[in-house]
């Protein structure tokens, strides 16, 4: 009984930590560092011949093209997914998003976006060690219309055991998401939204920023 009470108290403490530290850059030994996630979304690992071909195409069209990558936002209310109940003692497990990253690259008449998400799995007082998964949605929103131009659902997974203190990290990197290249300021046209899927697409309209010259 004492062991169960201690485990419940530990989860309450972890849940409070998660709520107050969602914007922290790292949680040691629980999620990858920001630099690790950034390296995973990098296009640096792309086949060099393909990269050279894209660069040649850009040069033939009047010089190398640049693109300002859209920002990543975690949709309100979707940074965590809790299963098992609202009360802490009823929670089986919980997934939390703690880090995001993105990188863009011009490829001829299009540009590609890779999106990375990292976080953690926590086993609750009502749960048991094992492997769990959660649905993660990635949306690219057109800020002029407030509507998604890309919306994809993925699955993230992690396995937590007694040996890992009933917690485990997860990390995810999307495939390149392709959009038409119009101009350099793609960050003013689009926003990347990520979050655990709640049965609806996060497409709230945001006022479009003016480009500074």
Task: Annotate the secondary structure layout.
Layout: H1 2-20, H2 34-41, H3 48-60, E1 72-74, E2 80-83, E3 93-107, E4 110-123, E5 130-142, E6 147-160, E7 167-173, E8 177-180, H4 186-189, E9 190-196
Parallel strand pairs: 1-9
Antiparallel strand pairs: 2-3, 3-4, 4-7, 4-8, 5-6, 5-9
Tell me the Rg in angstroms.
Answer: 20 Å
Shape: elongated
The biggest beta sheet, please?
5 strands, antiparallel
Strand content: 35-45%
Task: Measure the end-to-end span.
Answer: 66 Å
Contiguous uncertain segments of 5+ residues: 1-10, 12-29, 45-60, 200-213
The overall average pLDDT, rounded, is: 78
Helices and strands, in N-to-C order?
A: HHHEEEEEEEEHE
What oligomeric state do the depicted chains represent?
Answer: single chain
Binned, the helix content reads 10-25%
**Number of helix segments?**
4
Our count of domains comes out at 1
Secondary structural class: alpha+beta
The count of strands amounts to: 9
Structure description:
The chain is an alpha+beta fold and 213 residues long. The chain has one domain (2-21, 30-196). The protein is built from 4 helices and 9 strands. It has helices at 2-20, 34-41, 48-60, 186-189, and strands spanning 72-74, 80-83, 93-107, 110-123, 130-142, 147-160, 167-173, 177-180, 190-196. Strands 2, 3, 4, 7 and 8 form a 5-stranded antiparallel sheet that branches. Strands 1-9-5-6 form a 4-stranded mixed sheet. A hairpin with a 2-residue loop joins strand 3 and strand 4 (110-123). The chain starts with a helix and ends in a 17-residue tail after the last strand. The relative contact order is 0.20. Residues 1-10, 12-29, 45-60 and 200-213 have low confidence and may be disordered.
